């Protein structure tokens, strides 16, 4: 398959729907490299789908521009943009066979009958749909339907594939299966994938980069692992996985004060106003007085202990009443009981400072 | 699923009540005698022959067909356009608009007939084919509107978006995706419109003249004046014609959708 | 707000893809124009004209309406019509309720069959149906023979009000079943199971849990049957007694025989008022029942 790709640039994209409410999209800047798998991740209403729809051309931006390979697309009709698109509801034409569905974009481009036949049967074969060409979408399973939708969107070799929560309608098992297929597909075809989802596990698994959306803005952007370890903002820290968060202040450049605790900040820069964040799997539990030297710790009461096989989850209540957790190997959790007074502790590399 | 026998006895009785009475028309229309005796003393097709040979009956069938054939396309055009137009409005306006345009369905039939009759009388349209066509179109539009609107509201908007994303111009999208999917509603509406017109009595009764007697009016007059089993034959014809139209539409539709599997857009 | 705006895409797609917002508004107007014109010309105007006629002829004033209540005959016809309509509504509910209920509890296949059966009357000519009843009700007809044999009644029903009642119930039955089914389908039957789980007997659970939930649907279906039978002409004309006419026949007679348009118009408008009042009443009752249902939750 042809992999014509171009750089997709989004500059200061804004969408205001009128009235005096907040903007749906309040200024997005994004550069997507050719062949990248980028996910727009965020809760409902965060503007990620609106952004995708603006890229596709279905929603005209209030201001800002979208460029593909240097050409400005703003104002160009959706049917002229040439992006492939996959919808959550698949949007397969119910009155057409699988063959006709997949052939549709090729017919719009005036390809010859022979060429259409070849391209369609080729891609149908590749996607494991051989033999189903004459069937109607209603006669296919959910997984098959989604593959047809993908085939239809890719058969005309678009430079970019836009995916709007395509796996949302599937059950867990099927979802996992298709996630794997999607990842392999991306590696094979090398096209730019712009993927929208609210499922952070999915985003972490599939993406080269993730853009986390919050209320119309990109709150954090980066590779999944980087974003996880160094979230940058409190929103990203909470959205991407779990976090134990402590909103305190810097007593001095090397000390962070929270409640009655004083913690060492370690090396590296941090913003002037920050929240301290530690992931549960980097949090350990010790009896008071047994915290290793150099570690930061906080008092906590154990509210629940769950053995999840090789790891255990210890739910904690911190002095300010908020909840947190520690996830550790079960061997280290043997002595912990509900109601225990413990010290939750972490070493300096495990903590991160994020803007609130 | 509870197997309460009493419930199912009631249901079957109701089902029988819904379907059986009309079936009696068929043996009645084939009677050899000249009364409505049941069971018929003998069998004969003479009343059907009478239906065809008698000038009065034949003309009535012709008039009914003429009016139905003229009013149906008009009602379909008006109703379909209105349905598409309503879909472009916000939900609230659409509800109000649909309600307003469907009002003829819940207003007592006699009142609408009276109103139209009064107006047509003044305009000299009473007793004309045009008058009949206009009157029945007015009654038929709500049927078409509801049928098409139902279909449109069930239409998945993403289909249009998908087709556009695949490179089809808006006009092509309409031609290849939207219209084919709405068509069943339009056809259904057309069938309802035809049936409503063909079977309509009250307006036709008021607007009748010696030259514009529809089949239902002819039947009604025959009952009031002097009944002979031709009425049964006519009724059976009515039932058959109406059912046939619906069945043909259904079968023609299924065949068409099967053919589409091969070709298409 | 953002979510609904996003849902706009579908609607936005064809409209905005066309480019110009003003262009699409013209298109909307063009699409709706014929229907609006037809409605105004063939529905609104004639009705308005009738109202005007009823209060201006032969002289200006409400005497046509006053006559409705002073003329004993008209009053009797009105009352009779209302009673018959009520009877039809009750009969239809008695038949529609079990039928619609059965449709909610049966398998999808059976439901499809039941659905088709209910829709058949829509396809068959109303006139033909009434005529079939004529045959059945006549002297010597099946109903007559049946009654003679079972109840010893030797009185043909053709030309009587009971015949009208029965025939209209049958003709209007689908109009009661369909909305009732739609409403009953929404009821969560697990509530009844829950009541039984809490110790109520089958009958009790049904009466105290299911019926109140079904009430709004029942009221709506009954009201529809009532409203539709008010203005019925064919059935009473064909099956009814000339001494016991209903209002539609009265209107017809006034127009065709007496040529008293104004009087007929007044009766017609009165009929409309009763219809609208009934519709509003049923909505009010139904809303109160729904409110009580919500409160009970």
Describe this structure as you would to a colleague:
- The complex is a heterotrimer of chains A (356), B (265) and C (297).
- By secondary structure, chain A is of the alpha+beta class.
- Chain A has nine helices and 21 strands.
- A six-stranded mixed beta sheet of chain A has the order 6-7-8-3-9-10, sandwiched between helices. Chain A has a five-stranded antiparallel beta sheet with strand order 16-20-17-18-19, with no helix packed on it. In chain A, strands 2-1-4-5 form a four-stranded antiparallel beta sheet, with helices on one face.
- The longest helix of chain A is centred in the middle third of the chain and has 18 residues.
- Chain A is elongated and about 80 Å long.
- Chain A starts with 7 loop residues before the first strand and ends with a strand.
- The mean pLDDT of chain A is 89.
- Chain B has 265 residues and is an all-alpha fold.
- Chain B has one domain: MetI-like fold (Orthogonal Bundle), CATH 1.10.3720.10.
- Helix content of chain B is 76%, strand content 0%.
- Chain C is an all-alpha fold and 297 residues long.
- Chain C is 84% helix and 0% strand.
- Chain C starts with a helix and ends with a helix.
- Chains in contact: A-B, A-C, B-C.
- Chains B and C meet through α1, α4, α5, α6 and α7 of B and α1, α2, α4, α5 and α6 of C.
Strand proportion of chain C, as a percent range, falls in under 5%
Query: What about the largest sheet of chain A?
Result: 6 strands, mixed
Give the strand line-up of the largest sheet of chain A.
6-7-8-3-9-10
Work out the largest interface and the residue count of each chain: B-C, 84 and 86 residues
Described by the principal axes of the CA atoms, the overall outline of chain A is elongated
- Discrete helix count of chain A: 9
The overall average pLDDT of chain A, rounded, is 89
| Number of distinct helices of chain C | 13
Computed Rg of chain C: 24 Å
Pfam family, one (chain B): BPD_transp_1
Keywords (chain B): Cell inner membrane, Cell membrane, Membrane, Transmembrane, Transmembrane helix, Transport
Main location (chain B): membrane
Subcellular location (chain B): Cell inner membrane; Cell membrane
């Amino acid at each position: 398959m042809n992999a014509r790709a171009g750089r997709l640039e989004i500059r200061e994209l804004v969408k205001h729907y009128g009235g005096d409410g907040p903007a749906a999209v309040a200024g997005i800047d994004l550069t997507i490299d050719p062949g990248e798998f980028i996910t727009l991740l965020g809760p409902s209403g965060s503007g990620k789908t609106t952004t995708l729809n603006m890229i596709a051309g279905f929603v005209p931006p209030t201001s800002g521009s979208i460029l593909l390979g240097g050409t400005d697309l703003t104002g160009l009709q959706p049917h002229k943009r040439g992006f492939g698109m996959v919808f959550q509801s698949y949007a397969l034409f119910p009155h057409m066979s699988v063959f006709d569905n997949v052939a549709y974009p090729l017919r719009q481009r005036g390809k010859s009958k022979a060429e259409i036949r070849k391209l369609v049967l080729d891609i149908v074969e590749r996607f494991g749909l051989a033999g189903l060409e004459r069937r109607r979408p209603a006669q296919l399973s959910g997984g098959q339907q989604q593959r047809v939708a993908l085939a239809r969107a890719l058969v005309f070799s678009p430079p970019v594939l836009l995916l709007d929560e395509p796996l949302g309608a599937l059950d867990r098992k099927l979802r996992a299966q298709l996630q794997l297929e999607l990842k392999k597909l991306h590696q094979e075809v090398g096209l730019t994938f712009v993927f929208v989802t609210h499922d952070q596990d999915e985003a972490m698994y599939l993406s080269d980069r993730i853009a986390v959306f919050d209320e119309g803005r990109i709150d954090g952007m980066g590779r999944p692992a980087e974003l996880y370890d160094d979230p940058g903002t409190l929103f990203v820290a909470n959205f991407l996985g779990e976090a134990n968060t402590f909103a305190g202040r810097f007593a001095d450049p090397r000390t962070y004060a929270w409640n009655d605790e004083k913690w060492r900040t370690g090396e590296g820069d941090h913003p002037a106003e920050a929240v301290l964040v530690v992931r549960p799997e980097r949090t350990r539990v010790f009896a008071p007085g047994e915290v290793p030297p150099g570690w930061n710790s906080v008092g906590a009461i154990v509210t629940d202990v769950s053995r999840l096989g090789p790891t255990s989850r210890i739910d904690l209540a911190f002095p300010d009443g908020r909840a947190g957790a520690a996830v550790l190997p079960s061997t280290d959790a043997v002595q912990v009981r509900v109601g225990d007074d413990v010290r939750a502790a972490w070493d300096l590399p495990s903590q991160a400072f994020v803007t609130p | 699923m509870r197997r309460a026998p009493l419930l199912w006895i009631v249901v079957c009785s109701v089902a029988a009540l819904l379907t059986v009475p009309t079936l009696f028309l068929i043996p009645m229309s084939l009677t050899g005698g000249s009364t409505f005796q049941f069971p018929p003393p003998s069998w004969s097709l003479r009343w059907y022959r009478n239906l065809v040979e008698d000038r009065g009956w034949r003309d009535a069938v012709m008039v009914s067909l003429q009016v139905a054939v003229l009013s149906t396309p008009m009602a379909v055009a008006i109703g379909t356009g209105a349905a598409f137009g309503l879909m472009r409005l916000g939900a609230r306006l659409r509800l109000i608009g649909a309600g307003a345009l469907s009002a003829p369905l819940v207003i007592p039939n006699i009142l609408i007939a009276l109103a139209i009759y009064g107006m047509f009388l003044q305009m000299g349209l009473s007793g004309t084919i045009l008058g009949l066509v206009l009157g029945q179109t007015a009654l038929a539009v709500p049927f078409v509107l509801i049928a098409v609107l139902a279909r449109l509201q069930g239409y998945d908007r993403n289909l249009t978006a998908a087709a556009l994303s695949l490179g089809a111009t808006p006009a092509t999208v309409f031609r290849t995706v939207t219209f084919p999917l709405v068509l069943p509603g339009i056809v259904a509406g057309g069938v309802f419109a035809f049936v409503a017109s063909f079977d309509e009595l009250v307006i036709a009764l008021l607007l009748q003249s010696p030259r514009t007697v529809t089949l239902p009016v002819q039947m009604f007059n025959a009952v009031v004046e002097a009944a002979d089993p031709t009425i049964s034959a006519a009724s059976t014809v009515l039932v058959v014609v109406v059912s046939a139209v619906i069945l043909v539409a259904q079968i023609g539709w299924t065949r068409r959708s099967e053919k589409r599997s091969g070709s298409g857009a | 707000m953002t979510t609904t705006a996003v849902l706009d895409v579908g609607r936005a797609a064809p409209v905005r893809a066309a480019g110009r917002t003003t262009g699409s508004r013209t298109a909307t107007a063009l699409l709706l124009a014929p229907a609006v014109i037809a409605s105004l010309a063939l529905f609104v105007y004639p009705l308005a004209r009738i109202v005007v006629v009823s209060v201006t002829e032969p002289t200006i004033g409400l005497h046509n309406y006053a006559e409705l209540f002073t003329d004993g005959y008209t009053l009797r016809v009105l009352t009779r019509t209302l009673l018959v309509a009520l009877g039809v509504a009750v009969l239809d509910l008695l038949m529609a309720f079990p039928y619609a209920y059965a449709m909610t509890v049966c398998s999808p296949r059976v439901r499809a069959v039941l659905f088709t059966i209910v829709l058949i009357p829509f396809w068959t000519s109303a006139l033909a149906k009434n005529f079939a009843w004529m045959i059945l009700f006549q002297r010597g007809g099946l109903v007559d023979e049946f009654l003679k044999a079972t109840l010893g009644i030797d009185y043909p029903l053709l030309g009587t009000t009971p015949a009208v009642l029965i025939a209209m119930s049958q003709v209007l039955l689908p109009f009661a079943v369909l909305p009732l089914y739609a409403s009953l389908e929404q009821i969560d039957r697990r509530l009844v199971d829950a009541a039984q789980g809490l110790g109520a007997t089958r009958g009790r659970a049904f009466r105290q849990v299911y019926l109140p939930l079904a009430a709004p649907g029942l009221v709506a279906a009954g009201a529809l049957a009532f409203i539709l039978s008010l203005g019925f002409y064919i059935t009473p004309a064909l099956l009814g007694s000339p001494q016991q006419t209903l209002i539609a026949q009265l209107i017809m007679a006034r127009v065709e025989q007496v040529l008293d348009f104004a009087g007929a118009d007044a009766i017609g408008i009165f009929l409309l008022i009763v219809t609208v009042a009934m519709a509003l009443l049923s909505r009010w009752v139904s809303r109160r029942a729904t409110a009580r249902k919500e409160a009970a939750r």
